[in-house]
Amino acid sequence: MKHAAVASMILGLLFQIGCSSGLTAPLEMTTLNPGDDHQTIARHYLHEARLSRQQVEELSNQAAVYERVFGLESDWVSSTRLLVQFYQEVAREQDRLAELHLSFGKDRSSKQATPSRDH
Length: 119
Known about the structure:
Number of strands: 0
Shape: flat
């Protein structure tokens, strides 16, 4: 009985510490608000573009293997080539979004560096 009370108190303490540890809200990835962290958003998109390009490389190699095994006209080859095209388009879109957010970040930092003339 005593052990259950101690365990209950420890769990309650851990729960309280976990709830009060200053959790931050997730980034809003579609935001165009100049005050948001566009550098972090851009890094995320660049990372995702890199992963998509890795998929392109792996699927291209896979398609080459399928060509040797099943022949050039195989459904396996054509399906894998379609996936390659899909991931290429995804990577381009992620690069575009990264550039968009980088430009917002640059606009924000240049506006902060420029002193106001309303003195």
